[in-house]
Amino acid sequence: MSAVTCQISVSLDGFVAGPDQTPEDPLGKGGERLHEWAVATESWQRQHGRQGGERSTDSEVVDELLAPVGAVIMGRRMFGGGDGPWDETWKGWWGEEPPFHEPVFVLTHHPRDPLPMEGGTTFTFVTDGIEGALEQARAAAGDRDVAIAGGASAVQQYLAAGLLDELYLHLVPVLLGGGERLLENVGDPVLEPVEVVASPAVTHIRYRVRN
Amino acid sequence: MSAVTCQISVSLDGFVAGPDQTPEDPLGKGGERLHEWAVATESWQRQHGRQGGERSTDSEVVDELLAPVGAVIMGRRMFGGGDGPWDETWKGWWGEEPPFHEPVFVLTHHPRDPLPMEGGTTFTFVTDGIEGALEQARAAAGDRDVAIAGGASAVQQYLAAGLLDELYLHLVPVLLGGGERLLENVGDPVLEPVEVVASPAVTHIRYRVRN
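Output (structure tokens, whole complex):
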């Protein structure tokens, strides 16, 4: 069976978003610092239709991260648009052509029709929980992997349920001092570091989760 | 001038000791799991007068960690013996010949005469704060380094004061779920990963602190 994976940038003090998060500022105060390492790369700039950026160890990591998996699952807050019943004019943060290019399943308590976008991304809204979303994502992915994109709560739920096979952390040497923690309420899974890639900016550690 | 360094094992969720710490159990629940990687090495076993243990990447790291620096600073709780005025029968956790073999300065609010031990360790009790302890430790260390041994509070105080030059973390892939956090109340220092050593058990990351 294909693997369920997650890759996510985390501060050295354990946060995937900074303090004072709002619906308009889901990364919170200082949270954009978690992603500067990726934005600095040639891979990220190219993927966003721009010139420049650095070819580096981090760029190679980003190339790998940008390769489509089979399907993506994300939490409601990562998709955005606020809590409660849907404002159907909200189509995510990513414009008309989101960078996923594959089926994306959004965990929510509020039903909404599937939302096809340009470039191969379709957002499907799943109201029957993480297992239901995973079942649909696996069916869409075939023999390819399913990626849990975030945020913290979605990752925590899959990890706590023993459904995550791989956690690839990008450990960014900043201290946010508060915000949204990644590794809490997840029980005590066995994590094995199976690959470490070091750059001057960030330490990438891939953990296999023994379920 | 010589450097002020700290090396410490930390769980993936950021703790240097587990929950439910007591004076008799300063590592708290599960805290010993932070040190299993070191105890498993041939270097650690040899240093404790035993046979066996593994020759490995981690063993080489332990060899390096066990090399004396010039002087050591530790917090009162790490030295142990409970809070308040000293019970002078308490001579630390380490027996008659502690493994430091160099001057050790203990941060405390309660005066006590210096305590010479076998093997070159002398515990000196410093009541005038972290700067006073560092001054004494630097004088004792000469051109060699001063190591902040722990616990979390001592490391935090030196880091927050801009007095720490290097933080060498041994990132252990366990989740303690609670306990004593290392990286809080330290402000926002600039940390540069300058060396990463990966083993199947733990990821060692050396950060230079830009003060």
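The first strand of chain B starts at residue 4 and ends at 11.
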